[in-house]
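As a warm-up, study this chain.
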Amino acid sequence: MTPALPAPNPQSGLHSIQLGESGPRIAFCHGLFGQGKNWTSIAKSLSTEFRCTLVDLPNHGRSGWTDDVSYTSAGDQLAGLLRRMAPGESYTVVGHSMGGKVAMAMALLHPSLVRRLCVVDIAPVSYRGLSSFADYVRGMRALPLDTLADRTTADRLLQNDIPDPVVRSFLLQNLRREDTGWRWQQNLSVLGDHLDDLASWPELDVDPYPGPTLWVAGGESTYVAPAHAPAMRAQFPKVQLVTIKRAGHWVHAEQPAVFVDLLRRFVRREASAGAGKQE
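Now compare it with the structure written out below.
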């Protein structure tokens, strides 16, 4: 049985996991409804030469809950965590999807803290909503947590709203058993009510981020389009776009070896300039 978890505390800050004992620092930010541990396999592959921090973003995992959703606030919270962990040091910051937007916001607001930036399959633009996530939220909210027997039952009850078994498995990682019953580990109420905010991008009155930026797109994903390039270049002028073939939105999960090699070379400052393709 999963041990009981403490009640979420808005003042508890951000939870993180550390892998690796030496080398440059890398901070990883997950996507919506994810957790820092989603990056574990990638971080393990890099931990022999880098110090990896896997962050639970606000309202996710074991991090504190907030009353609203803001990329600027999340970026500030992430910056505060990283500064406390290693005063005076800088990081390569890696973010996927929602986490990519948090990473971009932090880089724009706290550029001295970000040595290099890696944005995975997202752009600094407002998208046209998160319709599939609205279905996920509806199904998750409908689960009878007080009377739920087990995860197998939860999986079955979610099938109508979330037909993809891989997505259901991903979301069910957030379901936790306590002495009093089951609960969702993430702040489902606030996140579900703010899907439009999560699909948006703030207008920040700041200078462009001056550091190297690796923009990784999935070749089979629609999240990064040619129309997004002007906004990316305007805010991150030292950007390099790399498209990984045979990968959708979850690039690092679908092509982990290619992604690890690409990120390793980027952190080592060996990534070539300009746009490119990876097999």
